[in-house]
Write a structure and sequence with these properties.
Elements lengths: L14 E6 L3 H7 L8 E7 L3 H11 L3 E3 L2 H8 L3 E4 L11 H11 L3 E5 L6 H14 L3 E4 L6 H10 L9 E6 L16 H18 L2 E9 L4 E8 L4 E6 L11 E5 L4 E5 L3 E5 L22 E3 L12 H4 L2 H14 L8 H16 L5 E3 L16
Helix pairs in contact: 4-5, 5-10, 7-10
Bound molecules: nicotinamide-adenine-dinucleotide (NAD).
Length: 375
């Protein structure tokens, strides 16, 4: 994303968009992101039609609906945003089937995570996206956040060397083994695993080898992983952490260099090249050109970067989708392949007993000529 933000009304052309879902998260974080994207919101749909009416008034859409089929037929949107929740009967993700309907109606889809509750469902979305030639972007906000994008650019520098290991901490509880077949019991885990798993798989690709230990009182777990590059990683799901604690810590280690992100906004880059003789160094300070670099926001100015819409990556994930729709070039982040890698990890947690080690299936490639944006 460019550092300078264009406001919605400054775009010469905007994308004809509809929205399914008028709930809590979308009110806080997705509709407001449209202020900074080329979105022309033409309709809002929610099964609770009063909420659909309220949101359409608040966010400037001329029409509202209680039924998405009716909306798709009447409005013929170029793109649809879907932010719904979970089916009370089955525990499945409501957005999965809605996304299929939108793709079949000829619309590109931006959908909030989780995109689905199984690998099979993600494969269905991939197939329908390929058949219809329409894009899907999944709202993996973490990998769009400025701090994480900085990590990606730092570890790509030759001086960093190949990534050797990575650590991600995130508070999450894994239910007991006998409940893991029940999607209702797994709802919290499914809802949150997308965040830390998006970071890991974006940095290192799909997990190849996986195992974990589990603590039954809090449901916390510590996993070890090996990736295709040979790099290794650990996911510390810190169930039992205090609600007042920052949620996340990410550390990526290269060769003689490492980068740490604390609390999603504080980035420290420990650059390579400093040397202090052991037992003889009187100062911990090193030369300026090899000293650690630290970035963190000031929280005083009325700058866009001080909005959670920006530092959590919401505007950026919406803009990435809009750029794909306008250019016809397939998205490269928040893709269904990213979601697939996450779902393989989710299923591994469901199916693998603590203490065991398993090899995860490699994601099947989709035929290039059938992929959206392919020739
Ligand atoms: N990325 C993030 O930071 C983040 C944060 C919170 C929630 N979320 C995700 O956002 C999603 C929504 O969470 P929420 O707390 O806003 O839920 P919510 O229950 O408040 O909102 C969901 C809305 O979808 C509507 N809906 C359901 N099925 C529908 C259908 N078939 N047609 C039209 N409308 C339908 C419901 O009536 C409801 O108004 C979840 O997937 C959650 O994981 C993401």
């Amino acid at each position: 994303m460019s550092d300078t933000v264009t406001f919605q009304f400054e775009y010469d052309e905007r994308i004809r968009c509809a929205f399914i879902g008028a709930g809590g998260h979308s009110y806080r974080n997705v509709y407001p992101a449209f202020q900074y994207a080329p979105v022309d919101l033409v309709a809002v749909c929610d099964v609770d039609v009063d909420r659909a009416a309220t949101y359409s008034r608040m966010f400037g859409a001329p029409n509202h609906y209680a039924d998405h089929h009716e909306m798709l037929a009447a409005e013929r949107p170029e793109a649809v945003f879907i932010v719904t929740a979970y089916d009370d009967d089955t525990g499945r993700v409501q957005a999965t089937g809605l996304a299929v309907d939108c793709l079949r109606a000829g619309a590109h889809v931006w959908m909030e995570k989780p995109a689905a509750a199984s690998v099979t469902e993600i494969e269905t979305l991939r197939r329908v996206s390929a058949e219809t030639g329409r894009f899907v972007v999944v709202g993996l906000k973490k990998i769009f956040s400025p701090a994480f994008e900085k990590v990606e650019s730092l570890i790509a520098k030759p001086e960093f060397g190949p990534v050797s290991s990575v650590y991600v901490r995130y508070p999450e509880s894994l239910p007991p083994p006998e409940q893991r077949n029940d999607l209702h019991a797994m709802r919290g885990f499914l809802d949150h695993i997308y965040h830390p798993a998006a970071i890991l798989t974006r940095l290192l690709g799909p997990v190849q080898r996986f195992g974990y230990e589990w603590e039954p009182q809090t449901g916390s777990s510590v996993a070890t992983m090996r990736f295709g590059s040979g790099a290794i990683g650990t996911l510390h799901l810190a169930g039992g952490a205090a609600h007042t604690s920052p949620l996340e810590r990410v550390e990526v280690v290269g060769r003689g260099a490492n980068v740490v992100v604390d609390n999603g906004v504080r980035v420290t880059y420990y650059r390579p090249g400093a040397h202090r003789e052991y037992g003889r160094s009187a100062s911990f300070l090193v030369d300026d050109d090899v000293a650690p670099l630290v970035w963190e926001p000031e929280f005083s100015l009325g700058q866009l970067y001080n909005k959670n819409l920006f530092y959590l990556g919401y505007v950026q994930e919406v803009l990435h989708f809009c750029t794909s729709v306008r250019s016809g070039v397939a998205p490269t982040k928040g893709t269904l392949e990213d979601a697939l890698a996450i779902m393989h990890l989710f299923e591994a947690y469901r199916q693998t007993p603590a203490g065991a080690t398993v090899t995860l299936p490699s994601p099947r490639p989709i035929t290039p000529e059938h992929a959206p944006g392919g020739s």
